[in-house]
């Protein structure tokens, strides 16, 4: 049984393929570069000055980029629908639906892991010493997605394909609509909500407006304070580092929430007729997520995955001596984790 949908004019539908191709190239470049550096490190007989997986964040970001690449790869299969002018059930449809189920929740999961990790290190002053934690997180995320995929594939009813055009690419069909929530939407909205909950107090803490008892994190107090200045080679405002940290949830929300809202709005319509410009704008933004994460990796946290020539050093926090020191060493977060992790590795 085959169900076809007339695809909107190619001028609009091509935007999805363009966005996915851009993200695929960007994420693929990063992963190839990481692979080359790992190979060089393995062949090196000396101490490796530029490690790749030195911290928990390195592992989370690596699998975030990998999930973005898989998501982009699934979307690029839409080239088939552009060639034939419609989406149809079949082998390509099943392959695209399978890849999307396995990959769609990945960026949300690892973005959430990065948010929680950053909050714990900065606000709770947690020094991660065990490399088992990111390994457990990665195993859990992959186990969830693979088990979920196997469960819905095994529970598919005869005569009711699990994956159908929805309508401009293949995903879980409307007959199994309840499975779409744990496959993607639950993780998207959980990551969005929890990131906002964590990063708002994180921003205030970095600015010096929030004091937290690291042994009892529920004990907090607000105060007005001048922004501290961290000296790291040349002076720069710590508030600039705060904005860099906040770029992760902001970019995720901007690129993913419109996609989710538009998909939900289209699902509740009686037909698949949707406003083409707004629909494909929101969808395309979502598929630029891989490119956005690569740019964030390079521009805001260059020491992750060995992208810096030298590892960062601890900075000096300068604050008003009449007030308690509340600012943490944001610039040196990777070096703090690295030194703690290397003690156990």
Q: How would you sum up this structure in a few lines?
A:
GO terms for molecular function: G protein-coupled receptor activity. It is found in: Membrane. This protein is globular.
Radius of gyration: 22 Å
Shape designation: globular
How much strand content do the residues show?
Answer: 5-15%
CATH architecture: Up-down Bundle
Counting structural domains, the number is 1
GO molecular function, one term: G protein-coupled receptor activity
Transmembrane segments: 12-36, 57-82, 108-126, 133-156, 184-206, 246-266, 278-299
GO biological process, one term: adenylate cyclase-activating G protein-coupled receptor signaling pathway
Subcellular location: Membrane
Would you mind describing this structure in some detail?
Strand 3 and strand 4 form a beta hairpin. This protein is mostly helical. The protein contains 11 helices and 9 strands. Helix content is 60%, strand content 9%. It has helices at 10-43, 56-76, 79-84, 91-103, 105-122, 132-154, 180-207, 238-267, 276-287, 289-299, 333-342, and strands at residues 5-6, 86-87, 163-165, 170-172, 210-213, 216-222, 229-232, 234-237, 316-318. The chain is globular. It is found in: Membrane. Keywords: Membrane, Transmembrane, Transmembrane helix.
